[in-house]
Design a protein that fits this description.
Chain lengths: 432, 432
């Protein structure tokens, strides 16, 4: 009985006056076993809050027909928008569409365009399509089918009475473009407000220092709102403005952004989807400069980050992962004496690596990194986390600095690569 | 009505025969805004599965008294063990204990040891304790209080009729030691079973094909259970066995694992935490062989993956990211003619890159990759996604293959790096 009363209360609560209230239902036993984190829920939560949709619940349920239908029964009583993630694959475990169809009393019917896309996908891969794959081309009758630009499982939107079901695949790289390209436009069309966010990307300053610098601005926010978020080694500030459809939220964002930029200055390296590597690549491209990289402890991570950017090839000439002393000598001309006298992890070696990569490649700009990523290799005077980062250009400008980085191996490598990229950004902008 | 029937069904389902079924309720609006991921749920999910407790649901609800009580009302109808995370702080938003007390009709009473600990905590930091801090020392009557070794908010266990409520703080660094030191011993004392999982890591076969090869095994699973999971380009099979305390679950897992290995063979590259790169590094280390890598379109990703493994330095000699033709010529001795006649992305160039990297470095094993990662650079006869992967050793063994990889740039790079690593694994194991 308690549950029934419960439902009535919730219904009043969530439906009273509010435009659209949402619940995310993650379907997958792997989530309940902790094999993966529910990053889909976090991604969708951020997007829904940007869209001004009230998200009231996350639910996760296993690959179990009865329990999925139970979760749907609970959700439909307390929200208007139900977003499911996962359970769209070809295996017997994948039953989200089946559960929604059964729950709503709808048939699953074949969607020819999806069948064609599915077969094309396998042909292109030279793989034979197996019978159970066709499962992915069946949808509850009346579905708006959402094409999957990355994988084989399309999503769907089902409107049923006054409720909306958005059915999305589990893998983030499939879910995210599908949400961006198909679900956001669908939801925006239903809304009478426009909400726009602009994210400021920040590197090289601590969270508390940043918040002190803009304390008063944070304290007095209303519309636009400001959401600080601390990432692994970066910070972001999300400015979100809400206006009626016929106004431009950006007009509200701009003056606030200007005030924040006055306070924080050049630690703001970009906006929205900018990354340190994308900013470096575009700075290089715009000034038609080339870059070459000599890496030891970062093991190719810096080259990898730069070459992950489309069009990097116009700026990126060459990278050398000179892990062994031998390769430092042969490829970069680091002298045996230097290695013997100061060691591979030293100011002197970093300097010679930088000179070597610039000389060997003729690139305009160079990076050289040598350090101890750990867990092994540390000594009392050269502990794990000690990293030398050298940046410079072919005109002889050079800056070599040492850092003591915390965390385990991959964290040290990640931080070192970010510092190197940010240092090059500052050099290209002639900042300090 | 549907909901009520629903509940009865669930109750039968989850309580029928099973010892203890659990739900995690995360309390915190920051989770619903996507400001943080629900890592507590993943951590607790892993621990509960290791404890042999069936976790059936994750729920997340905001800092709202009525909705928290609603979530409790739903949970108590469908599970026996309810674990809440978050909402134990001093602010007015923190209301988890208050909601549980109201829901169960219990008073909140002061816990003197917690008051003392709280005051000591503030004295130690020379901070004055504010009145609302004492909120953290009040618990539902009859609680087993769980001391917080890191922060100011203790947790609690409340036994109510045949249900157990475990109340934990939100910050992972407070929640995890509390769970390890106080909750696990409590739960183990209640349990009469042992559960163990073993994960098989699989590469080079599609999810549906794998599914078909072991369809009968999957169809007839009970104990051990088998959970297939499709990652970005890999597959995993988690085998989980449950036995009475005095038996060994591994004895149930082994024969099933053997049957699966008979069906899938050498696409199973490792178990549990193994990765393609960790397996390659350990194969190289065990045979005291060295490796060198020449990368074009993967831009250092293969080197980066190998060097992310602790101890890689004993096997990894050097990587070259020869992005420009110039660097392919100067560093690897690829001939101008070959580049002009066949192009940088060709069987011939991949072959010369491999010979070049082996010659230049003297490594035992080599990898060379050249391709078009996109989005630009594709042509009708050489489309985006065309990648040549060459592997070989210093004794002249060589294998060069072309692939048409799908997806955007970083996906093509990721897949190419995985194929290269798996090819080396197969070479080192003399598989086909």
């Amino acid at each position: 009985m308690i549950t029934n009363t419960g439902y009535e209360t919730v219904s009043q609560l969530t439906l009273g006056g509010l435009r659209m209230n949402a619940e995310i239902i993650g379907v997958g036993t792997e989530l309940l076993l902790g094999q993966i984190a529910n990053t889909d829920a976090q991604y969708l939560s951020q997007k829904l809050s940007q869209l001004g949709i009230n998200l009231f619940y996350h639910t996760v349920v296993g690959d179990n027909m009865i329990r999925v239908k139970q979760a749907l029964a609970i959700a439909i009583e307390r929200v208007d928008l139900i977003i499911t993630t996962g359970g769209l694959g070809p295996t017997m475990d994948d039953l989200t569409k089946e559960a929604i169809a059964e729950f709503l009393g709808l048939r699953l019917i074949a969607h020819q365009p999806s069948i064609d896309a599915l077969e094309a996908f396998f042909v292109k891969r030279g793989r034979t399509i197996s019978k159970n794959n066709y499962k992915q081309a069946y949808f509850p009758e009346g579905s708006i089918v959402l094409p999957n630009s990355v994988g084989t499982a399309p999503g769907a939107i089902v409107e049923h009475n006054d409720k909306v079901f958005v059915i999305l695949p589990g893998p983030p790289r499939e879910l995210q473009p599908m949400f961006e390209n198909h679900v956001i436009p669908y939801l925006e069309a239903k809304s009478d407000e426009k909400i726009v966010s602009k994210v400021l990307k920040i590197y090289g300053i601590g969270e508390s220092v940043m918040e002190e610098k803009i304390q008063d601005i944070l304290a007095n926010q209303s519309n636009p709102t400001i959401a600080p978020l601390a990432g692994d080694s970066e910070l972001t500030l999300r400015i979100t403005a809400k206006t009626p459809r016929n106004h431009d939220p950006l007009a509200l964002i701009q003056p606030l952004e200007n005030r924040i930029r006055e306070r924080l200055g050049d630690v703001i390296y970009g906006v929205n989807d900018d990354t340190l590597e994308s900013v470096v690549v575009s700075l290089l491209t715009r000034s038609s400069k080339t870059i070459a990289i000599a890496e030891s402890c970062t093991g190719g991570l810096i080259a990898r980050r730069i070459t992950s950017i489309p069009g990097a090839s116009t700026a990126f000439v060459e990278g050398m992962v000179t892990y062994s002393n031998q390769s430092k000598i042969e490829r970069l001309g680091v002298s045996k004496d230097t290695l013997n006298k100061y060691g591979a992890v030293s100011y002197e070696t970093a300097t010679e690596m930088l000179k070597g990569i610039l000389k060997a490649t003729g690139a305009d700009v160079g990076i050289a990194v040598t350090g101890i990523a750990g867990p092994g290799g540390g000594t009392p005077d050269k502990p794990v986390g000690l990293v030398y980062i050298a940046i410079g250009d072919k005109n002889g400008y050079m800056k070599v600095q040492d850092y003591n980085l915390l965390g385990e191996r991959t964290r040290v490598q990640q931080t070192a690569s970010s510092i190197a990229l940010d240092s090059v950004r500052r050099m290209l902008l002639n900042i300090d």
